[in-house]
Specification:
The complex is a heterodimer.
Chain A lengths: L1 E2 L1 H10 L7 E4 L2 H11 L3 E5 L12 E4 L2 H11 L3 E2 L8 E2 L3 E5 L3 E12 L4 E7 L6 H7 L4 E6 L7 H10 L7 H18 L1 E12 L4 E3 L3 E4 L8 H9 L4 H8 L3 E4 L4 E5 L2 H13 L6 E4 L6 H12 L6 E8 L4 H15 L5 E7 L2 H11 L4 E3 L3 H13 L8
Parallel strand pairs in A: 15-17, 17-18, 18-19
Antiparallel strand pairs in A: 1-13, 2-7, 3-4, 3-7, 5-6, 8-9, 8-11, 9-10, 11-12, 11-13, 14-16
Helix pairs in contact in A: 2-3, 5-6, 8-10, 10-11, 11-12
Chain B lengths: L9 E5 L4 H13 L2 E6 L7 E2 L2 E4 L2 H8 L3 E4 L3 H12 L5 E4 L6 H14 L2 E3 L5 E4 L3 E4 L8 E8 L2 H13 L4 E6 L10 H10 L5 E7 L4 H12 L4 E6 L23 H10 L3 E3 L2 H13 L1
Parallel strand pairs in B: 1-2, 1-5, 2-4, 5-6, 6-7, 10-11, 10-12, 12-13, 13-14
Antiparallel strand pairs in B: 3-4, 8-9, 8-11
Amino acid sequence: MDLLEYQGKQLFAAHGVAVPGGEVAATVEDAVAAAERIGYPCAIKAQVLIGGRGKAGGIKIAADGTQAREHAEAIIGMDLRGPRGEGPFRVERVWVEGGSAIAAEYYASVILDRGEKKLLAMVSAKGGMDIEAVAAEDPGALVKEHIDPTRPFTGAAARPIVDAAGLAEDVRDEVAEVLAKLAETAMAEDATLIEVNPLIVTEARDVVALDAKVTIDNNALYRHEELAAIDAESVADPQEAMAREKGLTYVKLDGDVGILANGAGLCMSTLDVVAQAGGEPANFLDAGGGSKAEAIVDALTVIASDEKVTAILFNIFGGITRCDEIATGIVEASRQLELAVPLVVRLDGTNSEEGLEILADASLADLHQEKTMLGAARRVVELASHPPAGGWD
Amino acid sequence: MSIVVDNDTKLVVSGLTGREGSFHGLRNRAYGTYVAAGVTPGKGGQEVEGVPVFDSIREAVEQEGANTSMIFVPARFAAPAIDEAIESGVHTVIAITEGIPVLDMLRTYWKAREAGVRLIGPNCPGVLSPGKANVGIIPAHFFDPGEIGVVSKSGTLTYQIGSELKQAGEGNSSIVGIGGDPIIGSDFIDVLKLFEADPETALIVMVGEIGGDAEERAAEFIAAEISKPVVAYIAGFTAPPGKQMGHAGAIISGSSGTAQAKKEALEEKGVRVGESPTETAAIAVEVLRS
């Protein structure tokens, strides 16, 4: 789960990392009132999960109340896209924050390095810009050091990284402390990524986190009540919310071919094979191991509620999952939901013959059986892109 | 031979008295795996279908000679259970449990490394050496004994490929599910090393997916250290950045971890990469017979 900037900053503040004071607002009136309390100049910052918000027009500085209103009106409700085309995300909330007198912009982060199985601390004197570009153009400017998992990572332990990054002498101790606190935050809050860009030095020589990018490990939410609450309210997409309620692993995509498979790997592979056949997947849905009929009804309910879906592919390879259970679920779901789109079903593995018999006996309209994964992918793409003569009704 | 589990495996199952643990533990025994003991704290002295249950893994090691541990306990208790196994005297720990916090696994990973214990998983289907032993949840009937070693981040995808190999008349030396989490005990490279040294393995199929750089690292390692042919498959070409695809590790962050980058890294080192599970199995059969 990714935190919004202000949520990340609240986490920083709780762990002793300095952040500018601010307030979150969901309406123009609230944003203006917050700006009046905070004073001018202040920053109005769109709270969406993309990088490059400033360039996209999602961050503006207000010098007075009139500007605060103008900016809040422009930003709240706008659709922002990330630098890699992510989104669009609608801005539901802004963070109104006191202006900072910036003397220098640095970069600091602590991320989980999967390959090395350690946390990796990174620091650069070149903050405030795209750090991947900095790393590509001037690799020496980004200092990286793994954190020894067997020793406490204190400010003293962080100091050599800060020295190597060539920051201003007078703030090195303080930046090292911040780095140690970021690592402490990661470990205490189960964050797999904490990035501060920029980490600023103010004209008063204070070190302050001006931005916050934080990713929390979903597997650990059970031991972080407040973060779990943020996660629960962060799902905006209606299908994703419905899937979560039913305990299904579902990801919404842009296409029109609904997909259900068992197992994350097989499901990803099914998306790929459908794309190779010329189709566009509408979703990822892993029915999980040992799926029962009821879970299949739930899954089909979620997939079919996406209006873009024009055909659905079931790709099941039964291991622990029994194909007869899946078939029973398909039959039940078809009766309950009155599906308006064709279903392509490929059942293989445990009890596949029994499953195929159940489907044949039910003689469902618009159900197409295929023996292989590739055959099923081709068939569903054909059905999705060629509506029947009378239309979909 | 075969790798990780075989006729010498003496298994102790943590969570044997639970629903999943007993179902799969007994299934493993029915396959021919020697299930020496179960462990559930507070239930020492009980039996599950003739398998003695102990309070601790160490007791199972001392009294029944267990050398391999399988972890089937719920996620929030799993990391301590793995730690217990690491310290118990077994040489191999296979963790099936899904959903363990990643920073817990980070600490546990280093404990296993320091103790010299082989850890497979977590969030994996286990290891099957056809005709010898099955530890975990891999449905054994899709796999025959043979010469192809399989190492995979994904369960069902492996069953799919195994089933296609079987239909083509080929079998497997061992199938190792390494798991789809960001931090896993054994990576592709660890398992590739074992297959390279295993005289019964003639060819290796590697099944990867988006996220991390384990496939890219494996590509480098294959070029430098592996003399046997390797055929690969990568899942997740259509996955968008920033979305987690089921497995906790399957997420493209920034510009790295894409399926395309992994495919290119492998092909650059001479590893053939199948477009689909079906094509991957077909390439493996073709290379094996050439």
